[in-house]
Structure to design on (416 residues):
DNA sequence: TCTGGGGTCCTAGGACCC
DNA sequence: TCTGGGGTCCTAGGACCC
């Protein structure tokens, strides 16, 4: 059996740990710039607030129902995530950390509802984060079991045993299946496939033709045939992207250079962290698509490095070169980003005959760069091109303290 | 006024090779 | 009548995930 542990309303739950009076109250966590809803408490879901909804469209509801808002606080969520994962790893031998709030667990040694409930309770007691655990023969079935555990059980745990599969699938909406998104969901319903059971009974060749190989795998998994294994090593990323929307529109090329320089440096440090180099860099800009009367421009350009690199200086000058090519004067840009591609391990680099950079020296420089920034804080050492302006940075008006990752934010308790 | 960020995989088609 | 066969690599676009 495979288990899926999934934290309930994860970001909201993290915020509630230090604000227990918000239990049973409607709470939202907002995206960067406090623009969209990215996490909702159950109470907020009941008010009809949707995932991804722009905040300004539900402002009246927020005021009327006294919904509590939080800006994102990723250091806090990241820290809680690793605490939860550590507990899971102490209870189960093989754990695949699937996302910030989800993990697949190998229950092949012993799968019982009591064991699942024990783990769930331990996590809640030790971290304050509520979690649900679902068990099934395959990852896809475990996902379904988790959905039921979360929605229909009190204990927060559920085992999808063989004799239940027929009935459960018959009542499970096809668009809720793992790997079936909105497009496929609509297409399936249009073809008369409404439940997971309908999907399971479709002809495999039709599924393969219309939903490609991955659709076929999902179908097999519903039949109990394992197609996705638990993966224990986290594979290095094949693409690394750093992008942001700005708090206001920007047309100033000098400022855009600073922004692109900052994005490139962030991406480069992610690249070095996983001990990789990249062969290509893409720079893109977007104007504000919600202002159709403004001049629209969505340029993107990819430049190749002569030799795969993870050197911030080399990468930044390439990125700025790219920006200078695509930038159009007079356009108001709302978002920009940098994507690194052609990622290879730093030990497998094809050297170039015409390379004129002193690689060993630069490597040492980057190592010191990273070390200082790790010890003193991000961007303590930076390239001059990164600048010091901050007017493009995010609006975060409701950010909670970093209770668990910053000494100055640690809670103080007065004992009388 | 105001609309997130970071990923993966698959497929088709074009350019190229012998 | 009749115009080969078998590959690789790369990229863009489209689907999906959290």
């Amino acid at each position: 059996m495979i288990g899926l542990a999934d934290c309930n309303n994860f970001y909201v739950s993290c915020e509630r740990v230090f604000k227990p009076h918000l239990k049973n109250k409607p709470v939202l966590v907002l995206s960067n710039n406090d623009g969209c809803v990215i996490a909702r408490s159950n109470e907020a879901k009941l008010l009809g607030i949707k995932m991804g909804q722009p905040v300004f469209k539900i402002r009246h509801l927020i005021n009327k129902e006294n919904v509590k808002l939080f800006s994102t606080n990723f250091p806090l969520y990241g820290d809680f995530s690793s605490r939860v994962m550590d507990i899971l790893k102490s209870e189960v031998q093989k754990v695949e950390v699937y996302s910030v709030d989800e993990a697949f667990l190998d229950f092949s040694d012993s799968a019982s509802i009591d064991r699942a409930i024990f783990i769930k309770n331990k996590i809640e007691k030790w971290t304050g984060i509520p979690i649900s655990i679902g068990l099934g023969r395959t990852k896809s079935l475990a996902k379904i079991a988790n959905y039921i555990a979360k929605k229909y059980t009190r204990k927060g745990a559920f085992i999808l045993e063989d004799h239940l599969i027929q009935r459960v699938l018959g009542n499970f909406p096809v668009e809720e299946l793992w790997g079936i998104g909105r497009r496929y969901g609509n297409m399936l319903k249009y073809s008369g496939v409404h439940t997971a059971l309908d999907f399971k009974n479709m002809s495999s060749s039709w599924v393969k033709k219309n939903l490609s190989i991955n659709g076929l795998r999902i179908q097999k998994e519903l039949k109990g045939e394992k197609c996705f294994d638990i993966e224990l090593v986290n594979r290095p990323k094949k693409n690394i992207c750093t992008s942001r929307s700005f708090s206001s529109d920007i047309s100033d090329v000098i400022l855009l250079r600073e922004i692109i320089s900052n994005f490139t440096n962030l991406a480069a440090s992610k690249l070095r962290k996983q001990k990789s180099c990249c062969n290509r860099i893409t720079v893109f800009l977007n104007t504000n698509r919600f202002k159709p009367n403004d001049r629209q421009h969505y340029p993107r350009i990819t430049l190749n490095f002569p030799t795969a690199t993870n050197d911030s200086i080399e990468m930044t000058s390439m990125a700025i070169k790219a920006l200078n090519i695509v930038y159009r004067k007079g356009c108001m840009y709302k978002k920009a980003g940098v994507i690194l591609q052609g990622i290879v391990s730093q030990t497998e680099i094809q050297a170039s005959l015409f390379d004129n950079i002193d690689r060993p020296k630069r490597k040492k420089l980057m190592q010191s760069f990273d070390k200082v920034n790790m010890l003193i804080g991000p961007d303590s050492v930076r390239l001059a091109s990164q600048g010091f302006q901050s007017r493009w940075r995010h609006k975060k008006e409701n950010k909670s303290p970093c209770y668990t990752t910053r000494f100055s934010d640690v809670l103080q308790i007065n004992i009388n």
Observations:
- The CA atoms of residues 140 and 178 of chain A lie 6 Å apart.
- The radius of gyration of chain A is 24 Å.
- Chain A has a mean pLDDT of 93.
